[in-house]
Structure formats: C-alpha cells, structure tokens
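Exam revision sheet. Question 4 asks you to relate a sequence to its structure. Input first:
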Amino acid sequence: MEGTYPSLKYLEKKKRNLGFQLRKNPSLKNFFFNFLNKPIMNFIYVLFPKIPVPTIFAWDVEGPTVYVSGDWDGWRGTIPLCPSELDFSGLIPLYPGEYIYKFSVDGKWKYATITKIEKNFQGTFNNSSAITRLWEFLYPDDSLLEKIIFQDTFFSDFESQNLKRYNRKTSTMPPHYIAFF
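Answer key, structure tokens:
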C-alpha cells in the first residue's frame, strides 16, 4: 500500500522481539550493529535524505560586530553572530558536506585559528568544516546507539535510571541554543 506506514505499536513490538533475539544470540547482535551500521537511522535517511544539521559557528575573540559567511550559499550573504558572555555564536542549519567559511569582524575578513584552516587558490586562509549527518552529530559513539535502541530490553528500570544519570555528558553547546533540541 502506497503512503501507509507501520503503526507505532507494531514497531515497538518488533523492537522488543529484536531485542529478545539479540540477547539470546550475541553473534547476531554483533552482525546487526557491524554489518548494518545504524540501521534505524539509515532507514530514516532513506525516507528523509535531506535533514539539515544544526551547526554552531563561534568567534571567541572580542569585537563589536561579528558575521559569518561561507560557501553553503555561494558566499552571497553574511549571518550575524549573537554575543554571549564568552564569545559570539550562531546556529546555522546546514546539510551534511564540506564547507569553507570566514568571519567578518568589524568589517575585516578573518579566520579562526582554533578550527581547521585551508589555504585557497588566491593564497588567503579560510576555515573549513565537515558537517556529518544528524545522527552522527547527536550520537558519535556506536555503543550509545545500542543503549538507546535496546535500553528497555536489556536493563531494568533501576539500571536504566542509573545509566542515564552516570552517562550524561556535558553539553558543548551554548545554553541559549539548547532550547532548540
């Protein structure tokens, strides 16, 4: 049937069944994660291949006005960065790929020395950044994926509460952007 999707109840049942099968057979579990490589998110990317990744650009040197510009829009515009206590930062949704960018600080083009730097054909320096898929951005560690997908099948409620409490990482994202997630 075109345009129909499985119900959430059906998917939950399949998830529990798969968790049970993987608990019984550890080699199947290794095959599942090594061969299929993040199967659920790959399925989502097949359905929705163009998912922008929220990307933070930050300038940590003082200046009254800071903008960022890059080849994501063909260098057509500049995006203002918001001042915070420690730096200027901005959140730009970008599709996965490799991007070149530069900062405009008080009307002068500059590059950040703390990020990757590339020299272009004109001899000037720019920053570059590789944007990965959203899933890799949120969960860079494969073992974390395993805990999220099969948490309710492998751990009791008490164990999963402790796991959440002790495995929590601090955010590198400015606090005023966390509300977006």
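Marking note for examiners. Confidence is low (pLDDT under 50) at residues 31-38, 144-160, 162-171.
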